[in-house]
UniProtKB/TrEMBL annotation, chain B:
<dbReference type="GO" id="GO:0042765">
    <property type="term" value="C:GPI-anchor transamidase complex"/>
</dbReference>
<dbReference type="GO" id="GO:0006508">
    <property type="term" value="P:proteolysis"/>
</dbReference>
<comment type="subunit">
    <text>Heteropentamer. Part of the GPI-anchor transamidase complex, consisting of PIGK, PIGT, PIGS, PIGU and GAA1. Interacts with GPAA1. Interacts with PIGT; this interaction, via a disulfide link, stabilizes the expression of GAA1 and PIGK and links them to PIGS.</text>
</comment>
<keyword id="KW-0337">GPI-anchor biosynthesis</keyword>
<dbReference type="GO" id="GO:0006506">
    <property type="term" value="P:GPI anchor biosynthetic process"/>
</dbReference>
<feature type="active site" description="Nucleophile">
    <location>
        <position position="206"/>
    </location>
</feature>
<dbReference type="InterPro" id="IPR028361">
    <property type="entry name" value="GPI_transamidase"/>
</dbReference>
<comment type="pathway">
    <text>Glycolipid biosynthesis; glycosylphosphatidylinositol-anchor biosynthesis.</text>
</comment>
<feature type="active site">
    <location>
        <position position="164"/>
    </location>
</feature>
<protein>
    <recommendedName>
        <fullName>GPI-anchor transamidase</fullName>
    </recommendedName>
</protein>
<dbReference type="Pfam" id="PF01650">
    <property type="entry name" value="Peptidase_C13"/>
</dbReference>
<keyword id="KW-0732">Signal</keyword>
<dbReference type="GO" id="GO:0016255">
    <property type="term" value="P:attachment of GPI anchor to protein"/>
</dbReference>
<dbReference type="GO" id="GO:0003923">
    <property type="term" value="F:GPI-anchor transamidase activity"/>
</dbReference>
<comment type="similarity">
    <text>Belongs to the peptidase C13 family.</text>
</comment>
<dbReference type="InterPro" id="IPR001096">
    <property type="entry name" value="Peptidase_C13"/>
</dbReference>
């Protein structure tokens, strides 16, 4: 008879699995964490290389010399902006026309669900201005975008000046095969989202954006620029986008090769490139960069305008000029030359960037980890859940087989079918209640902000965050109440069945999330898996309770904020951390409504109910 | 009496012998002269120049082909005897900063596109099928004359191919390939139909030597820019245009050909020495086992030029009026 259909051998197998389960789980979890940490070390992290043949090497002659012109434009822009208080649309239109572009404007407006404290806006309306440089000898089938986001807090006037000077220089060249769009957006990312939605004729975020009057073909690539001063000491590049999407690695390779060619200092996550990968220093620095990237990608915020372009599969990067206290500074001409080189090489493209990786992790600007090498880390962590689920399944069935073997008590009906019947009924109630709490967590804060603001002396944004926290904490009190509703007749196996379902539910969710956004999946797995595996009503309940609370999604968010600032060498004190946590919560909810970020719904409707199920299991009576 | 008869006989024989020897000397001198006139055995030259790549980043393949075209025209082969197959999307490509030009030297020294380029098969017409039809002559009757290879059994043909290749194949325009076996069979068809006297095959691609491995027809000499397993490298990176302008092997062949004029006596051994490994990085190869003449007797102009032999006669022939014939005519 086969291994699984022979009852004797099956029992032996079951006993083996049950005996070895705990060591295997610990081993698997350790392997997952160790694999992740080893990603920063050389055999798993490789040097980047240019995959697209059409882009070739950096063999172009950059001739941009418009540094003075850029500074003049920037000065004028800053002056007009100070005078008008908003984006000086008329001045921008005149300036772009004088440079020789086809100029169009677009208005947009949006009422945010609640006031945004960080940017101090609630009812947002603005105008985007963009100019199109038509390719002289080609049909307007494809285009490239250079965008500068202008918000109220960061005027970004130097970048606008550089954009106009570059436009003037590009207009004098005849080798463009794609149209180039020079886009200046108001209100930062809200303007970019409005423009993109109108350009692609969709409406995913409820933004009211006027239709565009001028269009230039399918966008092949985009570069966003943010400069705070007219000299920079380094250029920082941001790749993580909305919901953890990443641009094609070739675009980053292109930027990195031009940094090397121009001798510019380029950083990733604010960190310099480690030189020495053979010893321990390089990989350790790479590990820091890797952790920073994982944290940023897991948050799912668009970390710049490029993050919003990625939704439409337009490869995009954001370049930020940093002006620190280094001695050697680069002026606008150096930055302009790098951009000119990049655009000239992107001009050579015949197809969209598709040769290089779309899913990767970066340990440095010149080193990456491909998806085939980082996925096993998540796999090992999910294996723990699988093993635990298998153990519970075996225990459930062995408990069903056991009494028959022992020559069960007379009159004792074989317990399996009715136990299952009772089990199912007792499962449905916790599941439904947890999901309902999750739904309440998703809907109530924004819906009831006005009610809360009336009854308590808080602003709307604070009301939202506090409601969020209140519902979250209220979930902790649930187990004491659900048991009044539900009859438990087979107490021992009831919690096993619930935990089995919860483990499978968690494994499914984590698996799906890890495929789409590996960083989020791995981060949540690394924290939730041990607590989920250990949660049992028998054993030291307070210890397990503390562990479960410490690894709940909100606590993970708090912890990762502290870790993030620690890695950036700007550690937080507890009160600062708490303020940042509250701000992050409100920003998360806003990002969901403004850009369609999925972190808030995933946690509220998916991970939080799942976590509540484990909490129920822990407090099973 | 008998002795004098014998002596007469001997004298006659001796005189005859001397006359014969003088006659044979004279005849052999004429034969030598005649042999010199038709030394190579060919009376006309053709060239088939093929560039199998398209797209802007393959600029150098078009420049390669046009450089050979230019040399071949300069040495005397007219456009009517050249079949030029190019994708021809370089000169008017929107990415070209110097429209209507194709340069083969950086700093834009030499524009090989010029005013008088006649491309016979352009753009999507450069396919394996069209190439094989040109070679074998199996062409639909509606094909214009400029697209035909109208060679005969006294034609010397130069075939030059460049593009991206591999071990045993050559890629045509990113969508199909021609294998070395197909090429060898096409040449055999040409031989059977007496479409060539001698053939010179030059190929500048990666692993080019694999393309001539399978030839089996007589009177073929082949040169390649690299051996199997080696890549042919590009040359002349030009930052103003943004691409590589030439391949190494053809660049040095072009330099060599610039020294040749229609009266040059350089032979094939000189061509075999062009681009040693130190300059080319790859190892150029050649194949002469199918060729009947010794390469050192083969002039470069036998294939690259169209040299007409001119023989100036010093003897005069006098014509006499024959009145009878004259009357008959009237």
């Amino acid at each position: 008879m086969g291994l699984l259909s022979d009852p004797v051998r099956r029992r032996a197998l079951a006993r083996l699995v049950l005996r070895l389960n705990a060591p295997l789980c610990v081993l698997s979890y350790g392997a997952g964490i160790a694999w992740f940490l080893a990603l920063a070390f050389p055999p798993l992290t490789q040097r980047t290389y240019m995959s697209e043949n059409a882009m070739g090497s950096t063999m172009v002659e950059e001739q941009f010399a418009g540094g003075d012109r850029a500074r003049n434009f920037a000065r004028d822009f800053a002056a007009h902006r100070r005078k008008s208080g908003a984006l000086p649309v008329a001045w921008l239109e005149r300036a772009m026309q004088s440079v020789g572009l086809e100029v169009y404007t677009q208005t947009f407006s949006r009422k945010l669900p609640f006031p945004d404290e960080t940017h101090e806006r609630y009812m947002v309306s603005g105008t985007n201005v963009y100019g199109i440089l038509r390719a002289p000898r080609a049909a307007s089938t494809e285009s490239l975008v250079l965008t500068v986001p202008c918000g109220s807090d960061s005027t970004n006037s130097q970048a606008v000046g550089l954009l106009l000077a570059l436009a003037a220089h590009f207009r004098g060249q005849i080798y463009w095969a794609k149209d180039i769009i020079f886009l200046v957006t108001e209100h930062d990312l809200l303007g970019t989202e409005a423009w993109l939605e109108a350009y692609h004729d969709v409406n995913v975020t409820g933004m009211q954006s006027a239709p565009l009057r001028g269009r230039a073909g399918a966008i092949q690539a985009a570069v966003a620029l943010e400069l705070s001063s007219d000299v920079v000491t380094s250029l920082d590049v941001a790749v993580e986008g909305l919901n953890g999407q990443l641009p094609n690695l070739d675009l980053l390779n292109l930027f990195q090769t031009f940094c090397q060619k121009g001798g510019l200092l380029c950083t990733l996550q604010g960190k310099l490139q480690p030189q020495d990968w053979a010893s321990l220093d390089g990989p350790l620095q790479g590990l820091q960069t890797l952790l920073l990237m994982v944290l940023r990608q897991a948050s799912g915020c668009p970390h710049g305008p490029h993050g919003l372009f990625l939704r439409y599969r337009v490869e995009a990067l954001t370049l930020r000029g940093i002006n620190s206290f280094r001695q050697y500074k680069y002026d606008l001409v150096a930055v302009g030359k790098a951009l000119e080189g990049m655009f000239r090489k992107l001009n050579h493209l015949l197809e969209r960037l598709h040769q290089s990786f779309f899913l990767y992790l970066l340990t440095a600007l010149s080193h990456f980890v491909s998806i085939g090498l980082y996925m096993p880390a998540a796999g090992f962590l999910l294996l723990v859940l699988g093993l635990k689920a298998l153990e519970l399944w075996m225990q459930l069935h062995e408990a069903g087989v056991g009494p028959e073997e022992a020559g069960g008590t007379p009159g004792h009906v074989p317990p399996l079918p009715p136990a299952q019947g009772v089990g199912l009924a007792s499962l449905v109630a916790p599941l439904l209640i947890s999901q309902a709490v999750g739904l309440a967590l998703y809907i109530l804060p924004v819906l009831s902000q006005h009610v809360a603001a009336q009854h308590f002396p808080v602003a709307e944004a604070e009301a939202v965050v506090l409601t969020l926290l209140a519902i979250y904490a209220a979930g902790l009190a649930l187990p004491h109440n659900t048991h009044r509703v539900v009859n438990t007749q087979a107490p021992d196996r009831g919690w096993m069945a619930l935990k089995l379902v919860a483990l499978i539910y968690l494994a499914l969710q984590l698996g799906c999330v890890a495929l789409i956004n590996f960083s989020l999946g791995f981060l949540l797995a690394a924290t939730m898996v041990p607590a989920a595996a250990l949660a049992e009503p028998r054993g030291p309940r307070p210890v397990y309770a503390v562990l479960l609370v410490l690894t709940s999604p909100a606590a993970t968010l708090l912890g990762s904020l502290f870790l993030w600032r620690e890695l950036q060498e700007a550690p937080l004190s507890l009160s600062e951390g708490w303020q940042l946590f509250l701000a992050a919560l409100s920003q998360g909810v806003l990002d969901h409504y403004a850009y369609g970020a999925l972190l808030f719904p995933m946690v509220a409707l998916g991970f939080y109910p799942c976590w509540l199920l484990f909490w129920n299991v822990l407090f099973w009576k | 009496m008998a002795a004098t008869y014998c002596l007469d006989r001997v004298m006659a024989a001796l005189a005859g012998l001397v006359l014969l020897s003088f006659g044979s000397l004279a005849i052999s001198k004429i034969e030598d002269q005649a042999e010199q006139l038709f030394r190579s055995g060919h009376t006309n030259n053709w060239a088939v120049l093929v560039c199998t790549s398209r797209f802007w980043f393959n600029y150098r393949h078009v420049a390669n082909t046009l450089s050979v075209y230019r040399s071949v025209k300069r040495l005397g082969i007219p456009d009517s005897h050249i079949v030029l197959m190019l994708a021809d999307d370089m000169a008017c490509n929107p990415r070209n900063p110097k429209p209507a030009t194709v340069f083969s030297h950086k700093n834009m020294e030499l524009n090989v596109y010029g005013d008088d380029v006649e491309v016979d098969y352009r753009s999507y017409e450069v396919t394996v099928e069209n190439f094989l039809r040109v070679l074998t002559g199996r062409i639909p009757s509606s094909t214009p004359r400029s697209k035909r290879l109208l060679s005969d059994d006294r034609s010397n043909i130069l075939i030059y191919m460049t593009g991206h290749g591999g071990n045993g194949f050559l890629k045509f325009q990113d969508s199909e390939e021609i294998t070395n076996i197909e090429l060898a069979d096409a040449f055999e068809q040409m031989w059977q139909k007496r479409r060539y006297n001698e053939l010179l095959f030059i190929i500048d691609t990666c692993q080019g030597a694999s393309m001539y491995e399978r030839f089996y027809s007589p009177n073929i000499m082949a040169l390649a820019s690299s051996q199997v397993g080696e890549d042919s490298l590009s040359h002349q990176p030009d930052p103003a245009i943004g691409v590589h302008l030439m391949d190494r092997y053809t660049f040095y062949v072009l330099e060599f050909l610039e020294e040749i004029n229609p009266a040059s006596q350089n032979n094939m051994n000189d061509l075999f020495q062009v681009c040693p490994k130190s300059l080319c990085v790859s190892t150029p190869g050649h194949r002469t086992d199918l060729f009947q003449r010794d390469p050192k007797n083969v002039l470069i102009t036998d294939f690259f030029g169209s040299v007409r032999k001119v023989e100036i006669t010093t003897e005069t022939i006098s014509l006499q009026l024959d009145s009878e014939i004259m009357e008959d005519r009237y």
